[in-house]
# Entry
Amino acid sequence: MKPKILFPLILLGAALLLAGCPADKCPDGENAVLRDYAGLDGCRWLFELEDGQRLEPVNLHEYDLELQDGMEVKITFSEATDMMSICMAGKMVNITCISKR
# Structure
């Protein structure tokens, strides 16, 4: 292929890929606020949902996020029924999707 044609094709392909990316990574997620509960024995990061429910994530380390107290996020999760925690401040969950709001 001629170089004059190749460059516009690459630009077109990149534009199509970026246009296809959803703006919201967790469209069915719940709004939550990340809270630092380090002062509570056995706890660290918990999510507080809008209804006041607290969730203790067991796999938060799998996500490349700069964790900050008060960070507003959208999450999807499943309950981790096969685990126990000494924190006992919320339901233990596996995060399946997380994105900043």
In short: Strands lie at 30-36, 45-49, 54-57, 72-79, 91-100.
